[in-house]
Amino acid sequence: MATRRYVKQALSQWMKADGPDSDVVLSSRVRLARNLRGCPFPMLAAPEQSEDVMDQLLSVAENGRLNGLGPLDLIRLSELTELEKQVLVEKHLISPNLANESRNGALILSQNEDVSVMINEEDHLRIQILRPGFQLREAWEIASKIDDVFEEQVDYAFDESRGYLTSCPTNVGTGIRASVMMHLPALVLTGQINRILSAVTQVGLAVRGIYGEGSEATGNLFQVSNQITLGQSEQEIIENLHQVARQIIEHEKAARMKLVAESRTRIEDRIRRSYGILSHAAIMDSKEAAQRLSDVRLGVHLGMLPQVNEQTLNELLVSTQPGFLQQAYGEPLHPDQRDMTRAELIRSRLAIS
């Protein structure tokens, strides 16, 4: 089964590439929400209606219209276990909504996992593009091309004055959500983060945790995204987020230089302590793991831990999550078992990094 490949490996192929400004930006994402005209939104659709929507949208991939994306797998959510769905959520390949609430949900997934097309999520169609590093414009270009292919094959729900119609009013208009996942430890350590994030929200952007709305910003990872989808073009939304993200990147890099210049011994001690604990601890909960991995990631980029491979840290970001741990172990684990398994995994991966 194709799904096995996606849930077995924590590190997606696209994450192995070294994207621009990857010392600060882990990934860039663009997501488009679309619905089919004349069909009830997924939350209101009868089973036969959502089944018809799924068939229409899957046929676009089956008839070869998306061949330019390389090999694709078509996955029906009904074929997956709850644990497999959780792993796909932890890898950002599907949303929690699709995993937990979808009727007749499906996924069109590229084999390097940078293209994820969700069917019958909150909306009939969610086109998601993930790129390594700071590649927001590139992600938008790919998403736009895929959107054009679907729009040639199906009739979108579109209003001349309101734009694309969506299940949630906050997505009406362009239906675009663009985001940049950023690692901002120096802004946190220098006490600048609240001021920066406050300024970000004042220009119409949102700041969330690694898993989006409602999630905590653990491990100094912040997802910065647009809030406005109506009244601006897609290009204007992308450019506004791009400019603000560029400023945050520069502030973070300046804060790192300040840490090294003013507190090198103290910050190096913090980094090496975290590395030592990760390398030897017998128990590690997810929150502590995220924070200490953040310290080690900072140490790698400051040249203080050259022996650590950054791809290993990217892998641990996913593989230490509860769903992936249990999938790898082969059976459900209670919290204490997960903490011991997580610590063992981190020790083993850092030992061969």
UniProtKB/TrEMBL annotation:
Signal peptide interval: none
GO biological process, one term: phosphocreatine biosynthetic process
Annotated InterPro entries: Arg_Kinase (IPR023660), ATP-guanido_PTrfase (IPR000749), ATP-guanido_PTrfase_AS (IPR022415), ATP-guanido_PTrfase_cat (IPR022414), Gln_synth/guanido_kin_cat_dom (IPR014746)
Binding sites annotated in the UniProt record for ATP: 27-31, 92, 126, 177-181, 208-213
Gene3D superfamilies found in the cross-reference section: Glutamine synthetase/guanido kinase, catalytic domain
SUPFAM superfamilies: Glutamine synthetase/guanido kinase
Domain of life: Bacteria
Catalytic activity annotation: L-arginyl-[protein] + ATP = N(omega)-phospho-L-arginyl-[protein] + ADP + H(+)
Keywords: Allosteric enzyme, ATP-binding, Kinase, Nucleotide-binding, Transferase
Pfam families the record matches: ATP-gua_Ptrans
Cellular-component GO terms for this entry: extracellular space
GO molecular function, one term: ATP binding
Family according to the record: Belongs to the ATP:guanido phosphotransferase family.
PANTHER family (alphabetical): ARGININE KINASE 1-RELATED, ARGININE OR CREATINE KINASE
Protein name: Protein-arginine kinase
